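User: Predict the structure for this protein chain, please.
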Amino acid sequence: MLFPVVLLILFGVIQGALYFHGRNVAMAAAEQGVRAARADGQTDRAGTAAGQARQFLADTGELNNLTGLSITPEVGAETVRVTVSARTVSLLPGIPGPAISQTASGDIERFTTGGDR
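Assistant: Here is the predicted structure, written as structure tokens:
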């Protein structure tokens, strides 16, 4: 009777670790997209943000660990926001992993002169 309980706790701990790892990776990808899109001189900020976020996930090998991936850049007049949504890996076959969504935002960089403040 004790062994099934231990297994349930072990699987719960591992699934929790996978969930938090997925959240951290999604946040890092969103931040990378924002960093790239904030730079002065960008012509397609939304495309740059989405491309850099996806490239970050590819470079770290996490594209296979996040299913249903959605990268949504929002570019305003002064800010850029990137939301990365997906599902993490599930330990139980046939049951989707927990959903995650992380958003990062930042001001668009621009050069100003003394009178533009």
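Strands lie at 67-75, 79-87, 99-107.
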